[in-house]
Amino acid sequence: MAKSVEKAGIGDVPEMHRLINIFADRGEMLARSLSEIYENVRDYVVVREGGRVVACAALHVNWSDLAEIRSVAVAEDKQGQGVGEKMIKACLKDADKLGIPTVFCLTYKPGFFEKLGFSKVDKMELPQKIWNECYRCSKFPNCDEVALICRLDSLAKK
Ligand SMILES: CC(C)(COP(=O)(O)OP(=O)(O)OC[C@H]1O[C@@H](n2cnc3c(N)ncnc32)[C@H](O)[C@@H]1OP(=O)(O)O)[C@@H](O)C(=O)NCCC(=O)NCCS
Questions:
Q1: Which ligand 1 atom lies nearest to the CA of residue 83?
Q2: pLDDT of the chain, 158 residues: tens digit per residue
Q3: What's the CA-to-centroid distance between 71 and ligand 1, angstroms?
Q4: Predicted structure pTM score
């Protein structure tokens, strides 16, 4: 399958917003507003097919040594074809290029991230500074997502 992962452009945002919120409405991931996506558009990668955005994911830098993968969504008819895996690998490569050694995620799909080299951790092990945006989440303080981290040096040795 030749679908490639590319940096998102401004014109992709309405479709990314729609895609993310289809799954957010089902409680599978956190909702994102249009303004949040525009403000962070440089974090996002997309996969396009036939002029349509079929997948997106974001790498958000938190600190000198930590970044988060968030808003990973693959259109239902494109799931199970390696698209999610390609996007996560692109995000990890991006983190590595930036010199960031550790990437984490908060998710309801831990099995997907475990396949890609992430390991579960206690949420309380994550530094407090990542909770800034959690205050705005409707679930706060009862977060039921699972935290996982990926250390890029250990991934390189595999
Ligand atoms: C979770 C999601 C991103 C996976 O994307 P995808 O393109 O279907 O996944 P891939 O085809 O790249 O799968 C890569 C590997 O992970 C596995 N995998 C995929 N989803 C999985 C899940 N929910 N649980 C466990 N393993 C999973 C696949 O079987 C595959 O393993 P294999 O190589 O051994 O066959 C996609 O199903 C999705 O968008 N779901 C709705 C939104 C969501 O839940 N986002 C997640 C989190 S923030």
A1: 7
A2: 457 999 999 999 999 999 999 999 998 999 999 999 999 999 999 999 998 999 999 999 999 999 999 999 999 999 999 999 999 999 999 999 999 999 999 999 999 999 999 999 998 888 877 777 777 777 777 788 899 999 998 776 56
A3: 13
A4: 0.94
Q: Please spell the DSSP secondary structure of 38-53, one letter per residue.
A: HHTGGGEEEEEETTEE
Which spans in the chain are helix H? 13-25, 34-39, 83-98, 110-115, 152-157
User: What DSSP string describes 8-43?
Assistant: --GGGHHHHHHHHHHHHHTTSS----HHHHHHTGGG
Pocket of ligand 1, beta carbon within 6 A = 23, 28-29, 72-74, 79-85, 107, 109, 111-112, 115
* Alpha carbon of 72 to ligand 1 centroid (Å): 9
Atom of ligand 1 nearest to the CA of 87: 12
Using the mean position of ligand 1's atoms as its centre, give its distance from the Cα of residue 58 in Å: 15
